[in-house]
Design goal:
Protein name: EF-hand domain-containing protein
Number of domains: 1
GO molecular function, one term: S100 protein binding
Helix content: 55-70%
Pfam families: S_100
Distance between the termini: 11 Å
Domain EF-hand: 54-89
Oligomer: single chain
Keywords: Calcium, Metal-binding
CATH architecture: Orthogonal Bundle
Structural class: mainly alpha
Largest sheet: 2 strands, antiparallel
Number of strands: 2
CATH superfamily: EF-hand
CATH topology: Recoverin, domain 1
């Protein structure tokens, strides 16, 4: 059964590159996200995720894990690790919901 375009558009990962680019453009380097820009991105674009976290340090931990170069910035490749993880989570969620409705 083909998935509708509307269902795929609900996945936040498909909207994040545009929003991340807007966030990155606010700092000194428009090609990377600083920690502040990353936090802004997470708190605006993924607010449902951040508001439901019991650990207040979860975003700091995410930034630390994503920042493979340890330079305090997320470049495109590092940011795409987040996007890929979100895509997998969306796929798993859609697969489970489709399986449950059969």
């Amino acid at each position: 059964m083909p998935r509708s375009t509307a269902t795929w558009q609900k996945c936040p990962a498909l909207q994040t590159p545009r929003v991340a680019s807007e966030c990155a453009g606010k700092g000194s380097n428009s090609c990377t996200l600083s920690k502040t820009e990353f936090l802004t991105f997470m708190n605006t674009e993924l607010a449902a995720f951040t508001k439901n976290q019991k650990d207040p340090g979860v975003l700091d931990l995410m930034m630390k894990k994503l920042d493979l170069s340890c330079d305090g910035q997320l470049d495109l490749q590092e940011f795409l690790n987040l996007i890929g993880s979100m895509e997998v989570a969306c796929h798993d969620s859609f697969s489970c919901s489709l399986g449950a409705s059969l």
